[in-house]
Design goal:
The complex is a heterodimer of chains A (about 290) and B (about 450). Chain A is mainly α. In chain A, about 70% of the residues lie in helices and about 0% in strands. Chain A has helices at about 10-40, 55-60, 65-95, 105-110, 120-130, 135-140, 155-180, 185-195, 200-210, 210-225, 230-235, 250-260, 260-285, and strands at about 40-45, 50. Chain A has a two-stranded antiparallel ribbon. In chain A, helix 7 packs antiparallel against helix 10 (about 210-225). The model of chain A has no long low-confidence stretch (mean pLDDT about 90). Chain B has two domains: about 30-145 and about 315-370, Periplasmic binding protein-like II (D-Maltodextrin-Binding Protein, domain 2); about 150-310 and about 395-450, Periplasmic binding protein-like II (D-Maltodextrin-Binding Protein, domain 2), CATH 3.40.190. Chain B has 20 helices and ten strands. Mean pLDDT of chain B is about 90; it is low at about 5-25. In chain B, about 50% of the residues are buried. Chain B starts with a helix and ends with a helix. The chains are: A mainly alpha (about 290), B alpha/beta (about 450). The interface of A and B includes residues 152 and 260 of A.
Chain lengths: ~290, ~450
């Protein structure tokens, strides 16, 4: 007979869960509910006067061609940042995992960028790529390549993508490295004895065994690209030139924080919340199937 | 019963005594949030320290809360939480938002009337006073650091290009020609640039040419104002900038103050920038103070024979209530008013002007500085105030701007200008789009503040 592990007391499990539930309610559900409430209001910045306007804020946001443009920019931005943050991290982790001289030094250096705040990272990139004061920016212009992200939308988008991805490589590197180190040596040795080349070992043994880490990082990186990048964009391009680097989260920030248009900003964050919930659900529904735990 | 009453009386007396001794010692605390970085912030905090040292009743606690937009957001959030600063420094484009915030802001004219403190606002520059007053003349906030846009030019680059370094261009035709010549002779890698693209090239441009930026006297006469920046003259000017970008004589330096760096590094020979940029230009431009020239902003001579005054930028001080339906005490208001009076002294205004390059906001301060011979020793330091004062009376187009959500409108204008400079759309399309999007913002503001 199997031993059943159930609590007799109905109350105890809830009590044990209570701290976690409390944190979730206070920091997630309550603000989310407030955002939804605020998205139906028209308010002056000081909160002295407010009126209920139903779905008008959503209507205004979705009717704005620039908002649709921001969705397009966000798609390009998020996919690029996720790929550019994960692929090099995996490569570096695979390299650093081998027995090489000074591996610890490499590992330490690769982790450093994660400690840099987004705005500071952006300023570092500014000093490299600014067309007039940046080291590389000036070199490019001197070499006859017209480099001015203040007026070239594609260059600007490229710049914020690279800066945002660069910051996240460290984080991914750390997880990939840990993932690699937890792969049993015996499996790899068995593959070697069977005559599999290093490349083949990587793709048929290591990569599948790494898939839980990869999947976790995919979710984290998409969320990062969606939510944590407005500081970098604000410091580098402020959304310009035109609106070519305005992502959804940057617009939420600008409309809410700079323009003090709280209703429309809240409406946008509700839309953004829906998009990210949908994306995460899709990831768990379809991609997780391919993950081997 | 008797005993209880006696006890009560003793306690009350004790409390009264304690309160009395506290009020004799403790000063009334006045929180003051500002948005000036160093070194300007330190100079401003010094004025607060001087005020504290000048009397014993009030204590002004000055603190830096980030750049103007951040300070504005922080003050508004604090107000909503019932914990706002007594005085907040607000940039000029936030003026309409503050004026519309009935119940949150204590209008300056009310404050002065209730506290009996007198400040002679007739002595202030009309362009400064008008910017922060209602149409009927009642003043709403305390003007302090005001700047305006002027031309800075690099005399060395002018010499190398064969231009007269003592004769800066005065019209757009001359400006373009000078910029072309600077490029053709390779005297500098860039001819003309601009800081604050919308402030310098649209807002000041409208004032100088006496054309409306928006209806209802640029919004001063009512919230139901509409943008007018797609007029033929505005389109013509944006087209000039597009043409100059194509031929390489104009270089777009980015939004807000980003263009400053292009002149400071010596890359661009001419810039239209804030008069508050003076200190940095003198310090950083290669060749130093002897190499930096100052001039009025240029105009189109066929559009206006003699240009009008430019308008101001900068910031003023607003008095805030504690929070929604939480008014301040009489003592606090008295302290705030005394602080304003201290700050308004011509000597304080004059020192601020010579230390920083901001305008002398009072005419007597300007006179004081003039009699010291400061302008002879520092040529060009009087260009900003002369551009404000020597252009005749202000007109409805040159008094200032009062557009709701102006910071947002500026972003919209910049976005559309950038699209045009990239060649994605024409000048007309860009300004039409800016008007259409800007008007939407104005209507939202009107609705939210009805």
């Amino acid at each position: 007979m199997r031993r059943r592990v159930i609590f007799d007391d109905k109350l105890l499990p809830y009590l044990l869960l209570a701290p976690q539930i409390a944190v979730t309610i206070v920091f997630f559900f309550w603000p989310a509910a407030q955002a939804i409430h605020q998205s139906t209001l028209l308010q002056d910045p000081f909160g002295m006067r407010q009126q209920f306007v139903g779905l008008e804020n959503f209507q205004a946001v979705l009717a704005d061609p620039n908002y649709l443009g921001a969705i397009r920019v966000t798609a390009i931005f998020s996919i690029s940042v996720t790929v550019l943050a994960m692929a090099p991290a995996l490569l570096f982790a695979a390299m650093a995992d081998r027995h090489i001289r000074g591996a610890t030094t490499y590992k330490t250096l690769l982790i450093w960028p994660y400690a840099v705040a987004p705005a500071v990272a952006a300023v570092l990139w500014l000093f490299i790529f600014h067309p007039s004061i940046g080291v590389l920016g000036r070199a490019l212009n001197a070499a006859g390549i017209v480099w001015n992200y203040h007026l070239d939308g594609e260059q600007a988008l490229g710049l914020v993508i690279f800066a945002s991805a660069w910051k996240q490589v460290s984080y991914n590197f750390l997880f990939f490295l840990a993932g690699l180190q937890s792969i049993p040596k015996s499996v790899l040795e068995a593959a070697s004895i069977d005559g599999a080349s290093a490349t083949r070992r990587f793709w048929t043994v290591v990569f599948p065994l790494l898939s839980p880490t990869t999947f976790f990082l995919l979710v984290v990186n998409v969320v990062y690209a969606f939510f944590d990048t407005f500081g970098t964009i604000d410091a580098l391009t402020k959304g310009g030139p035109g609106t070519s680097t305005v992502t959804l989260i940057y617009r939420v920030y600008v409309d809410g924080n700079a323009n003090l248009n709280l209703g429309q900003s809240a409406a946008q964050s509700v839309i953004l919340m829906a998009i990210v919930i949908a994306l995460t659900a899709i990831q768990f529904r379809y991609i997780e199937r391919k993950v081997h735990y | 019963m008797l005993r209880r009453t006696a006890m009560f009386a003793t306690t009350a007396a004790a409390i009264a005594l304690a309160a009395g001794s506290v009020s004799a010692q403790a000063r009334v605390q006045i929180d003051f949030w500002h948005g000036l970085t160093q070194p300007l912030g330190g100079m401003l905090e010094q004025i607060a320290a001087d005020f504290n040292a000048s009397q014993t009743k009030y204590q002004v606690n000055a603190s830096f809360k980030g750049a103007y937009p951040e300070t504005m957001v922080a003050a508004i959030a604090a107000f909503r939480a019932g914990n706002s600063p007594h005085v907040v420094q607000m940039f000029e484009v936030g003026t309409a938002t503050m004026m519309a915030a009935r119940g949150a802001v204590k209008p300056l004219h009310e404050l002065l009337a209730e506290t009996g403190v007198q400040i002679d606002f007739n002595d202030y520059l009309p362009g400064v006073r008008g910017y922060y007053s209602l149409v009927d003349g009642r003043i709403m906030s305390m003007p302090f650091n005001s700047s305006t846009t002027i031309t800075f030019y690099n005399k060395d680059a002018f010499r190398k290009a064969g231009l007269d370094p003592e004769k800066p261009p005065t019209t757009w035709a001359e400006t373009r020609k000078a910029a072309q010549q600077i490029r053709a002779t390779n005297a500098a890698p860039c001819g003309l640039t601009t800081a604050w693209p919308t402030w310098a090239q649209i807002e000041q441009f409208s004032s100088l040419h006496n054309v409306p930026l928006a209806t209802k006297a640029n919004g001063l006469e009512g919230m139901d104002t509409e943008l007018r920046i797609n007029s033929p003259l505005h389109v013509r000017h944006l087209q000039t900038l597009i043409d100059m970008t194509k031929e390489g004589s104009f270089k777009y330096g980015g939004r807000d103050g980003a263009g400053d760096a292009l002149f400071a590094s010596g890359e661009c020979a001419i810039i239209h920038a804030s008069s508050g940029f003076r200190a940095r230009a003198l310090r950083e431009v290669p060749g130093g103070a002897a190499n930096v020239g100052f001039a009025f902003l240029p105009h189109y001579e066929d559009a206006i024979a003699t240009p009008r005054n430019s308008i101001i930028g900068g910031a003023s001080f607003w008095t805030l209530q504690k929070g929604p339906n939480q008014p301040r005490s009489k003592d606090e208001f008295q302290g705030i008013a005394e602080f304003y009076r201290f700050m308004s002294q011509p000597a304080v205004a004059a020192k601020w002007h010579t230390d920083t390059g901001f305008l002398p906001v009072r005419k007597t301060a300007f006179e004081q500085v003039r009699t010291t011979g400061y302008y002879q020793q520092n040529p060009g330091a009087d260009i900003p105030v002369r551009q404000m004062l020597e252009r005749g009376d202000t007109t409805p187009n040159t008094m200032g701007l009062r557009l709701g959500n102006m910071p947002q409108i500026r972003v919209v204008m910049q976005e559309e200008i950038e699209r045009a400079l990239q060649g994605q759309i024409t000048a007309q399309q860009a300004l039409d789009a800016a008007v259409q999007r800007g008007n939407q913002i104005l209507r939202d503001f009107e609705r939210a503040n009805r």
